[in-house]
């Protein structure tokens, strides 16, 4: 579904991604792990058209999307849950979710959009209760639910998630990862960047390890979980299947 080949991108003169190549097959859940500054988020931003690329190829469903605008990439079938959630704080929860379907309204899909909205509200029942509440007044976990729901409202073929557990309490982290696995089981293709490497690899079909903008290791989630270098550098103490012990 997604092929990246020799991709290079930067922030001004600072190179963030150095010739990265990876692939995502339809129906897979792919996790990308690495330390701070490894280039993980930069890679996702480049895929979504939010960071300028200098060289390489980004092919989505056999179509070159490198250089396309972010709205065009959303229309092509890629939707992102950004790091830090980046919800529209003054708007209601309902309006935030509807914004996710912005590129679909002009295509006469109102009934389909309403069905997707109902699906999101069933997935996150608390959002139905908070539907008229300003999204900025929600807890961090509830805001993450809004961000995921907003992305799903675009009905993506590829869902890109950037640090979905960041700053969340362990109980909410568990719930978020269960939602991610449920989406994968329902056939949604997922590209996941996550600091909680153990949790990410436990649910991944395959994983990639980034260091200083370069791809240094890849394998199945199970293989990377038992790799000595990965364990030493990224896994640390095991706090359970999904929780990483943070209490933010």
TrEMBL record:
This is LivF5. One of its GO terms (biological process) is L-amino acid transport. The keyword Ligase does not apply. The lineage of its organism: Bacteria, Pseudomonadati, Thermodesulfobacteriota, Desulfobacteria, Desulfobacterales. SUPFAM superfamilies: P-loop containing nucleoside triphosphate hydrolases (SSF52540). PANTHER family: HIGH-AFFINITY BRANCHED-CHAIN AMINO ACID TRANSPORT ATP-BINDING PROTEIN LIVF. Keywords: Amino-acid transport, ATP-binding, Hydrolase, Nucleotide-binding, Transport. Its EC number is 3.6.3.-. Belongs to the ABC transporter superfamily. GO terms for molecular function: ATP binding; ATP hydrolysis activity; branched-chain amino acid transmembrane transporter activity.
């Amino acid at each position: 579904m997604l092929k990246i080949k020799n991709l290079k991108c930067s922030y001004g003169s600072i190179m963030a991604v150095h010739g990265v190549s990876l692939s995502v097959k339809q129906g897979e859940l792919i996790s990308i792990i690495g330390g701070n500054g490894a280039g993980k988020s930069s890679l996702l931003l480049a895929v979504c058209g939010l960071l300028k690329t200098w060289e390489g190829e980004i092919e989505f469903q056999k179509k070159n999307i490198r250089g396309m605008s972010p709205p065009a990439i959303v229309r092509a079938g890629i939707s992102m849950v950004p790091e830090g959630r980046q919800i529209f704080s003054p708007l209601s929860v309902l309006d935030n979710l509807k914004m996710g379907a912005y590129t679909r309204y002009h295509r006469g899909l109102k009934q389909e959009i309403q069905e997707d909205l109902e699906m999101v509200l069933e997935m996150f029942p608390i959002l139905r209760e908070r539907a008229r509440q300003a999204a900025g007044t929600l807890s961090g976990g509830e805001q993450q639910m809004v961000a995921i729901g907003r992305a799903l409202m675009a009905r993506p073929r590829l869902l890109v998630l950037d640090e979905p557990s960041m700053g969340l309490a362990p109980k909410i982290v568990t719930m978020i990862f269960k939602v991610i696995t449920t989406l994968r089981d329902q056939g949604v293709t997922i590209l996941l960047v996550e600091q909680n490497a153990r949790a990410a690899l436990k649910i991944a079909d395959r994983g990639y390890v980034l260091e200083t903008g370069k791809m240094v290791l890849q394998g199945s989630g199970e293989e990377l979980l038992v790799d000595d270098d990965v364990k030493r550098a990224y896994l640390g103490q095991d706090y359970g299947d999904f929780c990483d012990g943070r209490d933010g």
